[in-house]
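Q: what sequence does this backbone want?
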């Protein structure tokens, strides 16, 4: 989460706000990591973090440079890549296990993120 963040110096009040934001973001990322395989609604994430949706979206993008949807898709593709490489499960099944309800959407997102189709990624890993 912090790898894309540019560290800044904060005064005491600023550091406190930074710490609260970081704690909130860590909580959100933990939630996303644990629930990536199911439908994730922004309302549920905001409720879990105990903040409003707009603020959640703003701080998430500020610290990661990504939207929550982009982060979820990248996480799902990362998990799918692991399954493609380490199992012989059908690609459609992997898509569903990783939270994609449409295998065509999965293939589009997979290619957009990795530059490869799921089949190409599996073949390349062999």
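A:
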């Amino acid at each position: 989460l912090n790898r894309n963040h540019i560290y800044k110096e904060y005064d005491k009040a600023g550091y406190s706000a930074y710490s609260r934001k970081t704690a909130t973001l860590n909580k959100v990322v933990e939630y996303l990591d644990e629930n990536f395989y199911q439908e994730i609604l922004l309302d549920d994430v905001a409720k879990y973090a105990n903040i409003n949706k707009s603020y959640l979206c703003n701080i998430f993008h500020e610290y990661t440079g990504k939207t929550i949807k982009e982060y979820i898709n990248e996480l799902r593709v990362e998990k799918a890549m692991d399954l493609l490489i380490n199992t012989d499960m059908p690609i459609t099944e992997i898509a569903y296990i990783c939270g994609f309800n449409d295998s065509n959407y999965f293939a589009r997102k997979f290619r957009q993120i990795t530059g490869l189709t799921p089949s190409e990624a599996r073949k390349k890993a062999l």
